[in-house]
């Protein structure tokens, strides 16, 4: 027995229970013996040498890409910022203009929001130590949900601890094994994972391609419950979903619609209610998801919809019921942000003015901005390596932006994702355009 590390027993199908086939016992035969005698198995025993063993952690040793980039000096991830999130940030003791955040309305440093967070800590303490379902619901959470429902013009709203969890919890709850989810191929990872958790059949349609969606819906089982789920604004490409046609197709096939408005709430629509308001289709969307980590300058997420659907999600979503609620400071800061968004539409106007300036600037310089329609303006570079080089040169020149390479974007379409804030000054934006122009010429992109 000494050289043995494990033994695999392959038993006949009628002997399968109570374990799956094949059964692996580690280290020695001892644990097998009760089973062998109890089920009178005549085992076909394979002896495996220790050096044939698979180690679960092998993949960690084999993962070298990040270390290679670090050694070459191109590694762009997990950069520690030594100042608060704002138009200008400090990294490694150096100032950079930030065009790589989701801080669209520039509210992270607003004194009214900071004060609301501080007051909430004074009144309620630092955390809730439990889930909404049991001990983690504060009157503050209820007030926030009422305010959100009112702001979004919806019957009800439910707050989760992150935007990611909102998608996981909602999708895994609202669709089940007899249902079909039709999902845009470029949807955010949290939608992809929520779909997987739902056990529904997932049918992916080509990005923003309504003909493909209609073809797939026409070929699907008529009696299944159906949901179309899409991003309102796609976070890398910065383009909008073709919501008018999504709604038309959904009506034709009796399908529910859910829109992830993480990048749209506070940004799109006359009142900042997102994609559906922008297109005048608020009555046609069944569920709208939003996050507090972008325009709301905090952390958490929410879903809005009809009262009975939100009530159902509230009592079934595992991501809500088995996870602690957002801390008082976050809830209070989102309420303060809602007040500001309602009272100061000029912030959104300033944001769009900045966005138009940058889109026009990049287009005139000859960059490929990938059909952006939002404050997210990507600059297509192409190959991953060229993108890392471009990113590094931007960084050294005082501009913080984000590289997006495969699999976040299709291979060969790597890009630098830039995004804009209401609080960026003309001086900052001109500086960014100047750096892009210089580097774009230097690297032969324009
Ligand atoms: C489209 C989209 N949905 C959901 C999320 C998840 O939101 P959060 O970061 O608040 O968890 C993000 C965040 O990047 C996103 O871009």
List the helices and strands and how they pair.
Elements: E1 4-10, E2 23-26, H1 32-38, E3 44-49, H2 58-62, H3 65-72, E4 88-91, E5 94-98, H4 111-124, H5 139-152, E6 156-160, H6 163-174, E7 180-184, H7 189-198, E8 201-205, H8 210-218, E9 226-231, H9 243-253, E10 256-260, H10 275-279, E11 287-291, E12 301-305, H11 307-316, H12 318-321, H13 328-343, H14 345-365, E13 376-382, H15 384-396, E14 399-400, E15 402-404, E16 414-419, H16 426-442
Parallel strand pairs: 5-14, 7-8, 7-9, 9-10, 10-11
Antiparallel strand pairs: 1-2, 1-3, 4-5, 6-12, 11-12, 13-16, 15-16
The protein binds pyridoxal-5'-phosphate.
Pyridoxal-5'-phosphate is lined by residues 162-164, 167, 188, 190, 231, 235, 260, 262-263, 291, 293, 301.
Describe the protein's architecture and organization.
- The protein is an alpha/beta fold.
- It folds into 3 domains: 4-53, no CATH class; 65-107 and 345-442, Aspartate Aminotransferase, domain 1, CATH 3.90.1150.10; 111-343, Type I PLP-dependent aspartate aminotransferase-like (Major domain) (Aspartate Aminotransferase, domain 2, 3-Layer(aba) Sandwich), CATH 3.40.640.10.
- The chain is built from 16 helices and 16 strands.
- It has helices at residues 32-38, 58-62, 65-72, 111-124, 139-152, 163-174, 189-198, 210-218, 243-253, 275-279, 307-316, 318-321, 328-343, 345-365, 384-396, 426-442, and strands at residues 4-10, 23-26, 44-49, 88-91, 94-98, 156-160, 180-184, 201-205, 226-231, 256-260, 287-291, 301-305, 376-382, 399-400, 402-404, 414-419.
- It has a 7-stranded mixed sheet, with helices on both faces. Strands 2-1-3 form a 3-stranded antiparallel sheet, with no helix packed on it.
- Helix 7 (189-198) links the parallel strand 7 and strand 8 (201-205).
- The longest helix is centred in the C-terminal third of the chain and has 21 residues, at 345-365.
- The radius of gyration is 26 Å and the shape is globular.
- The model is unreliable at 1-7, 9-28 and 45-50 (pLDDT under 50).
- It binds pyridoxal-5'-phosphate.
- Pyridoxal-5'-phosphate binds next to helix 6.
- Pyridoxal-5'-phosphate is lined by residues 162-164, 167, 188, 190, 231, 235, 260, 262-263, 291, 293, 301.
């Amino acid at each position: 027995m000494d050289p043995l590390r494990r033994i695999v027993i392959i038993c006949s199908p009628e002997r399968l229970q109570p374990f799956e086939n094949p059964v692996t016992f580690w280290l020695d035969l001892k644990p097998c013996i009760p089973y062998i005698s109890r089920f009178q198995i005549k085992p076909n025993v394979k002896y495996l040498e220790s050096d044939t063993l698979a180690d679960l952690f092998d993949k960690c040793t084999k993962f070298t890409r990040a270390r290679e980039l670090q050694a070459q000096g191109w590694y762009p991830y997990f950069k520690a910022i030594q100042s608060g999130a704002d138009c200008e940030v400090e990294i490694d003791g150096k100032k950079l203009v930030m065009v790589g955040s989701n801080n669209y309305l520039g509210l992270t440093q607003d004194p009214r929001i900071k004060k609301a967070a501080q007051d909430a800590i004074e009144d309620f303490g630092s955390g809730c130590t439990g889930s909404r379902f049991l001990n983690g619901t504060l009157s503050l959470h209820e007030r926030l949900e009422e305010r959100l429902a009112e702001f979004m013009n919806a019957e009800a709203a439910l707050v989760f601890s992150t935007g990611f969890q909102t998608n996981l919890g909602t999708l895994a709850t609202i669709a089940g094994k007899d249902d079909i989810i039709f999902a845009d191929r470029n949807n955010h990872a949290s939608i992809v994972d929520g779909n997987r958790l739902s056990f529904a059949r997932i049918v992916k349609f080509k990005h923003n391609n309504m003909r493909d969606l209609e073809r797939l819906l026409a070929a699907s089982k008529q009696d299944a419950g159906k949901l179309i789920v899409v991003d309102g604004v796609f976070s890398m490409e910065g383009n909008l979903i073709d919501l008018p046609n999504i709604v038309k197709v959904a009506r034709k096939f009796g399908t529910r619609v859910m829109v992830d408005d993480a990048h749209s709430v506070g940004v799109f629509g006359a009142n900042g209610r997102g994609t559906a308001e922008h297109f005048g289709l608020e009555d046609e969307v069944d569920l709208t998801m939003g996050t507090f980590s972008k325009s709301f300058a905090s952390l958490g997420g929410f879903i809005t919809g009809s009262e009975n659907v939100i009530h159902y999600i509230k009592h079934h979503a595992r991501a809500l019921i088995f996870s602690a609620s957002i801390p008082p400071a976050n809830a209070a800061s989102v309420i303060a942000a809602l007040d500001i968004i309602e009272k100061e539409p000029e912030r959104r106007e300033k944001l769009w003015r900045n966005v138009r300036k940058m889109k026009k600037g990049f287009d005139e310089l000859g960059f490929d901005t990938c059909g952006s329609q939002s404050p997210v303006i990507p600059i297509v570079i192409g190959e991953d390596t060229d993108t890392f080089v471009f990113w590094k040169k931007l960084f050294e020149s005082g501009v913080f932006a984000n590289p997006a390479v495969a699999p976040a974007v299709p291979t060969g379409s790597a890009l630098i994702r830039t995004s804009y804030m209401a609080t960026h000054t003309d001086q900052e934006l001109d500086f960014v355009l100047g750096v892009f122009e210089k580097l774009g010429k230097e690297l032969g992109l324009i």
